[in-house]
Write a structure and sequence with these properties.
By secondary structure, the protein is α+β, with helices and mostly antiparallel strands. 35% of the residues lie in helices and 29% in strands. The chain has 2 helices and 3 strands, in the order αβββα. This is 16097_t:CDS:1.
Length: 100
C-alpha cells in the first residue's frame, strides 16, 4: 500500500523517545531517510543532579539539556504538522513511495 504524502517532508520527521535509567536521560530518535529504511539513533545522554551539595552547580547544565530536548521535540512536531498539512504528491519514482 502506498501513502500519498510529500516524501521530502516525511523524510524530515524524527520521532523522539526519552528513557530515564539510573540517573541518566537517554534521548533517542527514529526517522525514515529513504523508503522503508528506518534509522534509530541515540541523540543525547545526560544525567540529573543527585548529590545535594552539587545541585546548584549542576542545575544549569541539566536545565540546558532539558531545554535542548524541548527544542528538538518542538522541531519534530513542526515537521509532522508540515507533512500532515502538505498537498499529496504524484508518484513518479520509488523514492517518493512509502510502503505502509
Amino acid at each position: 500500500t502506498n501513502y500519498q504524502g510529500d516524501f521530502e517532508k516525511f523524510r524530515r520527521i524524527k520521532v523522539f523517545g526519552v528513557q530515564i535509567y539510573y540517573h541518566n536521560f537517554y534521548v533517542y530518535s527514529m526517522c525514515m531517510p529513504f523508503s522503508s529504511v528506518y534509522y534509530f539513533k541515540q541523540e543525547n545522554k545526560f544525567s540529573y543532579p543527585t548529590i545535594m551539595f552539587l545541585v546548584f552547580k549542576d542545575l544549569p547544565i541539566f536545565a540546558s539539556n532539558l531545554w535542548i530536548m524541548r527544542n528538538i521535540i518542538i522541531s519534530s512536531t513542526e515537521n509532522i504538522l508540515a507533512y500532515v498539512t502538505s498537498v499529496p504528491t504524484e508518484f513518479g519514482n520509488d523514492d517518493t513511495v512509502i510502503d505502509k
